[in-house]
Amino acid sequence: MNLILAFFFTFIIGISNAQLRVGFYAGSCPTTEAIVSVVVRNAVISNPNTAAILLRLHFHDCFVQGCDGSILIDNIPNAEKHAFGHQGVGGFEVIETAKKELEAICPGVVSCADIIALAARDAIALARGPVYDVPTGRKDGRISNIFLANDMPEVSDSIQQLKTKFLRKGLTDRDLVVLSAAHTIGTTACFFMTKRLYNFFPGSDRSDPAINPNFLPLLKAGCPKNGDVNLRLPIDLGSEQTFDIHIMQNIVNGFSVLESDARLRDDVTTRSIMDSYLGFFSNPAFNRPFFQADFAESMVKMGQIGVKTGFQGEIRRTCSRFN
């Protein structure tokens, strides 16, 4: 059954891929990528955490109905962006800023969905991650529904749940590991840590046993019991501002901040994928290109999930509302 699912979604992604291309706006709005890049750079200079925020926005947009900008809509009841699984997602103002600048010179040409994908790419580069080409030509979706976001990957998912949710989007176990490693930059709220630290086993106050005992006091100090759930912790302790594979070393050693990252140790396949990168961990100059190339490939692949092209969507004038 899993092989059938993988074939089906690979086929669908292949159809979408054929309709996207690098440089889609070269003729219709040639300064598109330069404008998005400047807007993103200014946002990251103002707040370095914006890089991680924009990367997460792209992920959350693509995992519900595909990469169609549906997460940006906020002027209708039950819009997708208000889903429980999207809590803490941000970066909307950066996308709107880029959209306004593009509308001023190329009205009705560049989709909000493409701006999200380009902004995520530029954000990764600013965090010293890989530089890669983004195929464009997406249209914006015409549906945004909170109930369609019920199957988002969650921090409390088991490894099998995570693998299944990625497979449903045509993504492999390697994609799961590599895209999870995007947590190398950014922070998380204590809201997502409470269960793992203080109620991992229902009816008790025990913590997740996967947490290294030497790391547990630090996590609890950062997120005190009954404390402010809006306090934030770096997800990749020791390397939270630099895009690298340091987070995989943390995961293997029991220093995962997020429960979902820790679950990558629970499966032979995902563990072996991490080990394949970490086998050369003592020589970052050697392993970095391999991981970065794989990450770029997975990002492009994710960015083609369920895209709308041609008459399947629209080019919104304002990203937060349908035309």
UniProtKB/TrEMBL annotation:
The record marks R56 as: Transition state stabilizer. Substrate binds at P153. SUPFAM superfamilies: Heme-dependent peroxidases. InterPro entries: Haem_peroxidase (IPR002016), Haem_peroxidase_sf (IPR010255), Peroxidase_pln (IPR000823), Peroxidases_AS (IPR019794), Peroxidases_heam-ligand_BS (IPR019793), Secretory_peroxidase (IPR033905). It comes from the Eukaryota. It catalyses: 2 a phenolic donor + H2O2 = 2 a phenolic radical donor + 2 H2O. It is an enzyme of class 1 (oxidoreductase). Residues 1-18 form the signal peptide. Its EC number is 1.11.1.7. This is Peroxidase. It comes from Parasponia andersonii (Sponia andersonii).
